[in-house]
Amino acid sequence: MIKDGKNRFSRLIQPVFVGMIYLFLYLPIIVMVLFSFNKSRISVRWEGFSLYWYQKLFQTPEILDALRVSLVVAFFATVLSVVIGTLFVVASVWKKSDYMSWIFYGNILLPEIVMAIGILSIFTFFQIPLGYLSLITGHTIIGLGFVIPVVRARFVELDPILTEASLDLGATYGQTFRKVLFPLLLPSIVASSLLVFTLSLDDFMIAFFCSGPKIQTLSVYVYSMIKGGVDPTINAISAIFLALSSLLILILSYLKVLDLVVSNE
Amino acid sequence: MNNLFNSLKNFYDEWYPKVVIIGVYLLIIAGFLYSPRVFEYFSNEQSINVYAFTEFVSSEAVKEFEHETGIKVRIQYFEFNEELYAKFKINHGEGYDLITPSDYMVEMMRKDGMLQEIDHSKLSNIKELDSRLLGKYFDPENKYSIPICWLVYGIVYDRDIVGPNFKQANLGMLFKDPWDLVISDVVNKHYRVCMAQDPRDMVYLAAIYLYGRTKNLTDVELAQIQDLLSKQKSWVESYTDAGTPYFLTGGIASVALISNHRMKKLQEISNKFIFQIPKDGSIMVIENIAIPVKTKKSDLVHKFIDFLISKKIAMLHANLYGTNSSNISVFNEKVAENSNFFPKDTMFDKLHLINNEISLDRVDSIWLGVRFS
Amino acid sequence: MKTLRKIFSEEIAFVFSCPALLWECIFLYLPLLVLALYSCFEFSAQTNSWVFTLHYYRQVFHSLYFRVILNSLKLAFTATLICFTIAYPVAYFLAIKVQKRFRTFLLFSLILPSWTSLVVQIYAWFFLLEQDGLVSRTLHWIGLIPKSMHLLNNYFSIMVGLVSCFLPFMILPIYVILDKMDPRLLEASADLGADKIETFKRIIFPLSLPGVYTGFLLVFVPVFGEFAIPSLLGGSTYVVWGSLIVDKFLRARDWPFGSALAIIGIMLFVLIILSCVAIRNLVKRLRGVN
Amino acid sequence: MKSIRFENVSKSFDGELILDRLNLEIPAGRFFALLGPSGCGKTTVLRILAGLDAVDSGKIFLGDQDVTNQPIYTRSINTVFQQYALFPHLTVFENVAYSMRVKGIKEDEVKERVYEVLKMARLFGHESKYPRSLSGGQQQRVALARAIVNRPEVLLLDEPLAALDLKLKEEMLLEMIDLQYKLKTTFVYVTHDQFEALTVADKMAIMNTNGGIEQIGTPKQIYEFPASRFVANFVGNTNIIEGKLGQSEQGQVVEVDGLGLFSVYVTPEKSAINSSSSVYMSIRPEKIFISKKERSEFSNHLQGTVVDIIYYGRSTQYNVKLKNGLRLMVFEQNEEHFPQESIDYDDNVHLYFQKENIVLLEC
User: What 8-state DSSP symbol labels residue D149?
Assistant: First the structure.
């Protein structure tokens, strides 16, 4: 009996620990959502339920604009870095010129401020207008640093045996990529896309320096609001964004798309 | 000779295609990056791009201006003057049509030739400006800048902590050891302090406390300032702007350095706190509008400036943000409403502007020393 | 592989790899080179020309700045270590203990918090950690602390912020490796008489090391360069490398010095990594000899 | 159905010469086995043939056509890979249909041929399963089906049965022989397992560790008349005794130190061997008769002591130590149902064999 009890205890301790860690990660999120419904102007005391900040949010076009800019930039930066990153991986693995891959570690190693200043000086030097494109360019650099290692790891795992089998069966390189490698690389591509998307949304430095006078991303907007403490409208938009992305994830997981990302098959 | 020719030819054969490929890609990338220029060329939208402090140009005002004139205004916000300067330093502020530098920044930008002269004749509301804010050191003839509002730093304290002996807030509340104040019965309990985020403010404030001036500080004096700030660190809770309300309302700090417009917000949450301008003087900041030298939309910008300093908008902003308006009639009205937040005329002389005498490098090295002491 | 090489022709490979490489060179290495040049040249007004100087590097080494860098390394290392300690059991649990159908959901809920702005999360911690905040009260209730405590503006709050923001980046790579592990290995180990702890020590952990290294990099590097969390949650009482650089570039506009700081920080970091690798190889070789 | 010819093919990896001017002819429409120890370069031969590796020099002909520089996907050669290399994301049907689909063959025909092949490979009913849910033998058959569905001229099999158990292996070998007989395609079977090679091949080649061909012939020729010590040793078990060729009144003899004279029969092909030169004698263990009794009908006779007895089921192996210390291996057919003389450890035994059973090999 005693042994059984001990077993039950040790069986419980792990889920409880993991649960606590999840709680730890979600605490700030819960607080944020809570305060988006708070009457008070400063997120420090609960003063009663109110939808005021949501109402205000939809009357503040800058925030919605900023959110739109963030999403557009993140989307295109993700697509661009995935496409050119995957092309690079294909070429470097098939040509066995792996030595080139190390240069992409720089993207992860450099502090973002250095990258941002660097990109801005190059853009200014060449008189390139700042705006969506400069942001996409900068975020693509960040993205490449993640896409290439992630996709490459998967590619090396698959190659060469499946590539050879496919070529042997009469498929050309293009067909081999489309019909064999791409479906098998898809999990890593989706995973790295999610990563790049997240990083692009969160990035402040490049967004701050390279956005130019006409647009700003949500992260920059949020940062510029810091001085007065976080405006609850920021909480509101974060809550909405969070709700939307949770919904997306629920739908995707219902459609079993996510299993594709997680499984190794 | 033949050999050399062959090796050259091999080199050429090998690299020729690659150079072509690289060239094509560079063209594509360039086309991609420069494409906005093309759209820009064809668009003749009437618009101005504003780069402003977070709390000085409201979206309400912008909406009204757009409605009145049909000119589109895009605003971006910055937090520190230095961000503005850094951006302008790199790309000469290209694309921005209106900026709001603080006093000392106007001087720096003016000296660096980043600002355009302002045509006063185009500003119908210029006579309404508070004359006390004009002709300051950073722009003696206001050729390059027009004040939009101003702030003063004061001391906010929890009314519970002061004892019967206490009359008027002074800088000693920030710089003297709270234990000493408890012992000498000025305050009745020990407290912690919140200071501002910008180290520059800290250094100048300490100079006012120690020497009553912010000019001609010697190296010895600067070293003393560093000592003072280092000592002060032990009772400082945080050097923050945004966090101050949290720490005050949370009971973590009882005394803080705060600007009068931020105090207004604090007042809205809690009435436990009293705001006073220290009797030994304080720092004031004049926020200005200026026009970057590169803008081509000077006419539109002048319209917008005139709009911003008009009584209606100045009133709107004063109500919204609690800043001291540069429009004299608005300011007087506000003072009449609630004199607590505004310096009295007698105090005005004791308010110091930040200047560029102490280089930022110097400030930073003092600051690093403080934080590492 | 030579035929693959022949048919997947040199030209096509070049065409494929060019965009990424060009992008990288133009927008990362070219600017970096410019900054590096900045850090070792000084404009001399007398000769009206640029003069080579190591002045800025000397300045970094001879002052508090170097201590700041070392401190940030220490901070990053501690945060990474804490992340690792927490992340490993979580990753282990997700990869080995959880049923497959819940796994996807749990993994994605791990990433979800990082889709909200960092600053917003940090401000939420403000509320949680203050004097009468949730955390302090809970700790008091459990009995860990004698009375409700003020948990902000210190090392603790910085750590809480760092760990909560970067934990997922440690969990995911470890999870990926553990998930791939062949369960037969565990059976084989058990069969050979190893108990659970021994199996973990000798099989699971060594095999999961690549994931640990990746996680280490993914956490250590950004924490090392992080400036927002230490300055917001540390009440500006902690100076870190990231905020020094931001200060130098943004506020002081001392670009050469900022570049020198950045370069020395990166060098130091790379040096640490390299020496770790070297030590590992040395240990391996020594073991091999014995 | 085409023949294959390697002409002076050389190939090196990382500066190490794997194949050195290899010449090899593989006859059309036959089951050809390439047997060699691990790492001898036989897989390289296969990969070169498939087009997965390029040659450094030399030429490869498929029929009369030079395919040396032909891209892999245009060669009418298909491979069954050692680890099968089935596409994990495709079903059995899709895997088999792959080669036709990439060629753009009409879907009706694809369907028809895939089902035909699946039936042949006894995979009918599994077509919508994914490879990972199949057993090893089934995966093997999918790989095979996938490779033959497009009716290649040549089918390459790279140690296809390495991962299967013995019973399944034997079954599969017979199936493959059947298949080759039906298809009449040229099969090239690479293996290091002599049993597989001897079973399936119409003709086989033995490669040595240096990537050279030691001998080509039918399995019988290879086994009974090995051309070199390497082949004799590698294919099946054998006893090698070194001696000196000489002449005596009984005919040709080999003189071995400590054992005296062995009478041998020199086949016409071996007549080139010089008298009084050193030679190896190879005697297969099953060709040696072991007995405790004296017999007189054999041309060679030795005496020794039994040191090991290994019971194999169908036969028993005796290791016999001769008086000069040499050990010989002897196989004896088992027969326990009739009374038989029993041989035990440390028994003194007589070994007999005919001179025709000795294969002379040059040193």
Answer: T
The beta-carbon neighbor of B242 closest among A40, A208, A229 is: A229
Residues of chain A neighbouring B262 (CB-CB closer than 8 A): 228
Task: Please indicate, yes or no, whether residues D187 and D248 belong to a single structural domain of this protein.
Answer: no
B83 touches chain A (CB under 8 A): yes
Cα nearest neighbour of A46 on chain C: C127
Residues D199 and D275 grouped into a single domain: no
Count Cβ atoms below 10 Å from residue A12 Cβ, excluding itself.
10
CA distance C176 to C162: 22
Looking at D169, D197, D230, the residue that finishes a domain is D230
Q: Token pair for residue B169? A: 């807030």
Are C69 and C268 spatial neighbours (Cβ–Cβ below 8 Å)?
Answer: yes
The three-state (H, E, C) secondary structure of A170-218, written as one string: CCCHHHHHHHHHHHHHHHHHHHHHHHHHHHHHHCCHHHHHHCCCCCCCH
What residue ranges define each of the domains in chain A, with the CATH number in brackets?
Answer: 60-262 (1.10.3720.10)
Is-contact B190 B198, C-beta < 8 A?
Answer: no
- Residue C64's pLDDT is 81
Same domain, D313 and D220: no
- Chain C contact residues (CB < 8 Å to D): 1-7
Same domain? D153 vs D189? yes
Closest CA to C77 of C206, C285, C224: C224
User: Which of D230, D247, D272 represents a domain boundary (last residue)?
Assistant: D230
Same domain, D339 and D295: yes
Q: For residues B271 and B29, what is the distance between their CA atoms, to the nearest angstrom?
A: 59
Chain D residues closer than 8 Å to C6 by CB: 54, 69
Using the beta-carbon criterion (under 8 Å), do C6 and D53 form an inter-chain contact? no
Give the range of the structural domain holding residue D340, as residue numbers without chain letter. Answer: 239-362
Query: Do the two chains A and D touch, given a threshold of 8 Å on CB pairs and at least 3 pairs?
Result: yes
Q: Does D300 touch chain A (CB under 8 A)?
A: no
Is residue D158 within 8 Å of D43, Cβ to Cβ? yes
Same-domain status, D155 and D56: yes
> Does D have 3 or more CB contacts under 8 Å with C?
yes
Domains of chain C, by residue range, sit at 1-53, 57-289
Kindly determine whether residue C13 and residue A94, on different chains, have CB atoms separated by under 8 Å: yes
Q: Are residues D297 and D186 in the same domain?
A: no
Residue contact A228–B262, C-beta within 8 A? yes
pLDDT recorded at residue C247? 80
Distance CA A36, CA B145 (A): 39
Domain containing residue D58: CATH number: 3.40.50.300
What chains are in contact with C, requiring at least 3 Cβ pairs below 8 Å? A, B, D
pLDDT tens by residue, chain C, 290 residues: 444 445 566 677 788 888 888 998 998 999 888 888 888 887 776 777 778 888 888 888 877 888 888 889 999 999 999 999 999 999 988 888 888 778 877 888 888 888 777 777 887 887 788 766 777 777 777 777 777 667 777 888 899 999 998 998 899 889 888 888 877 777 777 777 777 788 888 888 888 888 888 888 889 888 888 888 888 787 666 788 888 888 887 777 777 888 888 888 888 888 888 888 888 888 888 876 55
- By Cβ distance, the residue of C34, C108, C270 closest to A121 is C34
Type of residue numbered C235: G
What's the CATH code, domain C57-289? 1.10.3720.10
Q: Which two tokens stand for residue D147?
A: 């490779």
Rounded distance between C-alpha atoms, residue B65 and residue B74, angstroms: 12
Domains of chain B: 47-149+286-336 (3.40.190.10), 151-284+354-372 (3.40.190.10)
Packing angle of the helix pair A218-225, C118-129 (nearest 10 deg): 40
Q: Is the dihedral of CA C175, C180, C185, C187 positive or negative?
A: positive
Is the CB of B272 inside 8 Å of chain A's CB atoms? no
Nearest-neighbour CA in chain A from B333: distance (Å): 25
